[in-house]
Write a structure and sequence with these properties.
The protein is built from 7 helices and 24 strands. It has 438 residues and is α+β, with helices and mostly antiparallel strands. Helix 5 runs parallel beside helix 6 and helix 6 crosses helix 7. The N and C termini lie far apart (51 Å).
């Protein structure tokens, strides 16, 4: 019964999406969806374990149990099977049609030492996990992959990332591709657990997280229940937009599918968050959201234009160095760009929605190539951002068809604070002026 209702809804949603598409294109055949054999587990055994940053020197541990009586407790320490500390957390659950989730636990642990290996156990039983905290200063490496899904391409992407010596994973939307079938959220959690339990995963939502059904189901119910991000720690009112700081980098995660006009809560929060950024303490400023603003692929043309019109001037005034987006199932890197053309004081925009989803690649590009588009290719892969110091960072994109060590695209980036773009005349004055605007 559940499957029939859900598939009907999916067909109606697909039809609506097709009717409103801005460009027609045909996706090439994807690789097969992964299968997840059922295995019997104790109801109290922790499953789908993942971690995320939760403020200065703190980490949030999240997991699911089938037992409603399991405690939201994490034991941890710097020696295996020797737990010096214990933290108590909170739990939630949700229902979606005939589906009822397990007990979803979120427990914040800390304070933790930087660049340190910790051993931990969830709920007082089950396997021991290990996590590595990020460094306190440069260098730091981010792995980036959006639009993951659960296909053989996804597994290839995760295998490549696993070979990368990264500190934090950032995902600009479209995680599980559950699309109303809630048990796919569970299989996704199990798929990413080996990586997501060891390094913090910082995510934002995409269209496939929405799962909204008018008068029946609220938007982002599963996403918000399972993937709790540090929105409260960053004084946001919503799990759909937040920020965090790590090792000299300030990262802003925005929501493409929640209100973003100048009268919205998200816009007001963004102004307040950017006003607190100290570029002497965090010289790098990054922004992630799902729908790209600069995209020369035929897929999803112009879908980010409204958000761009509302927010680009604010990001430019703040001196954002790099914008990472997903949604388009291909890879593209721009020059520094602002207001539709190359600008030495603009942000580099990277579209990296090529993690491995079941919909396949978007392989048709606009011709001629826009002057701001530097490199573009419809292949699955992941990105790595190694911020070496306050002024220089190295970006590389790694195609799944190659070894992880092979860099299919690469570029050195120079941060804006040392470029003259954020001087009193160009940057600080403009930002202060915008912050004072009603």
């Amino acid at each position: 019964m559940e499957l029939n209702v859900v598939f009907l809804i999916m067909l109606l949603c697909d039809a609506a999406a097709s009717a409103s598409a801005t460009a027609d294109y045909v996706r090439p055949p994807p690789r097969a969806t992964l299968s997840f054999p059922w295995s019997k587990k104790r109801s109290s055994e922790p499953q789908q374990v993942h971690i995320s940053l939760a403020g200065e020197k703190h980490m949030r541990v999240s997991w699911v149990t089938n037992s409603k009586h399991s405690p939201s407790m994490v034991e941890y320490g710097t020696s295996s099977n020797n737990y010096s500390f214990t933290s108590q957390g909170e739990s939630t659950s949700y229902s979606y049609f005939l589906y009822s989730s397990g007990k979803i636990h979120h427990t914040v642990i800390g304070p933790l030492e930087h660049n340190t290996l910790y051993y931990y156990r969830c709920g007082g039983e089950g396997p021991e996990f290990q996590l590595k905290t990020p460094p306190s200063r440069f260098p730091i490496t981010f792995a980036v992959a959006g639009d993951l899904g659960q296909t053989e391409w996804t597994k290839s992407t995760l295998d490549h990332i696993d070979q990368c010596k990264y500190d934090v994973h950032m995902l600009p939307g479209d995680l599980s591709y559950a699309d109303y079938l809630q048990h796919w959220w569970d299989t996704f959690g199990e798929l990413v657990q080996p990586l997501a339990s060891a390094r913090p995963w910082m995510v934002t939502q995409g269209n496939h997280e929405k799962e909204y059904i008018p008068m029946l189901e609220d938007s982002f119910k599963s996403y918000n229940s399972r993937w709790k991000m540090p929105y409260q720690e960053s004084e946001s009112t919503s799990n759909l937009f937040y920020s965090f700081e790590v090792a000299g980098v300030h990262v802003v995660m925005l929501g493409s599918y929640t209100d973003y006009d100048k009268y919205s809560e998200q816009y007001s929060w963004l102004k307040a968050d950017l006003s607190k950024v100290d570029r002497k303490r965090t010289p790098w400023l990054l922004v992630l959201f799902h729908v790209p603003w600069y995209n020369s692929n035929e897929a999803h043309q112009c879908e980010g234009d409204d958000m761009k019109a509302a927010m680009e001037r604010l990001l430019h005034a703040a001196g954002v160095d790099l914008v990472l987006a997903g949604h388009v199932h291909a890879y593209e890197r721009t020059s520094r760009v602002y207001n539709g053309r190359s600008d030495p004081c603009g942000a580099v925009h990277i579209t990296i929605g090529d993690g491995g989803n079941r919909e396949g690649l978007a392989n048709k590009y606009m011709d001629p190539q826009p002057e701001w588009s530097i490199f573009r290719e419809a292949s699955f892969g992941h990105g790595e951002l190694r911020i070496v110091n306050a002024s220089h960072a190295y970006w590389s994109w790694h195609r799944n068809d190659d070894d992880e060590a092979v860099r299919s695209d690469q570029v050195w980036l120079t941060s804006l604070p040392g470029s003259g773009c954020l001087s009193e005349k160009k940057g600080d004055h403009e930002l202060r002026k915008m912050l004072l605007e009603p």
